[in-house]
Amino acid sequence: VTVFTVDPAGLNQTPVVVQPLAGSQWNSASFGQFIAIKVDGTYSPVLPSLLFMQSSMTFSVTVMVHSETN
């Protein structure tokens, strides 16, 4: 799990590139900045053969939210 402040330059690209803002911490993001959470992992189903699945699958998920600082 990685949490970071998003570099706004990547949001103007096509396709959008969600990348960390250099030199910043997620907990110091100012109002209106994006904070991203990225989760990478491996999923191992209990009975993969019943669904004709592989024994494990890797995944990567990234979500963004606006900062609402005090």
Main features:
mainly beta; 70 residues; three-stranded antiparallel sheet
Give a count of the beta strands, DSSP E runs of length 2 or more.
3
Largest sheet: 3 strands, antiparallel
How far apart are the termini? 25 Å
Order of helices and strands: EHEE
Strand content: 25-35%
- C-alpha geometry: elongated
User: Over all CA atoms, what is the radius of gyration?
Assistant: 17 Å
Strand ordering within the main sheet:
1-2-3
Structural class: mainly beta
Q: How many separate helices?
A: 1
Contiguous low-pLDDT stretches (5 residues minimum) are none
What is the residue-averaged pLDDT?
91
Question: Considering DSSP H and I runs of 4 or more, what fraction of the residues is helical?
Answer: under 10%
Summarize the structure.
The protein has one helix and three strands. It has 70 residues and is mainly beta. It has a three-stranded antiparallel beta sheet with strand order 1-2-3, with no helix packed on it.
Outline the fold blueprint.
Layout (H helix, E strand, L loop, with lengths): L1 E4 L2 H4 L22 E10 L13 E10 L4
Antiparallel strand pairs: 1-2, 2-3
What can you tell me about this protein's structure?
The mean pLDDT is 91. A 3-stranded antiparallel sheet has the order 1-2-3, with no helix packed on it. With 70 residues, it is mainly beta. It is elongated, with a radius of gyration of 17 Å. It has 1 helix and 3 strands; from the N terminus they run E-H-E-E. The longest helix has 4 residues.
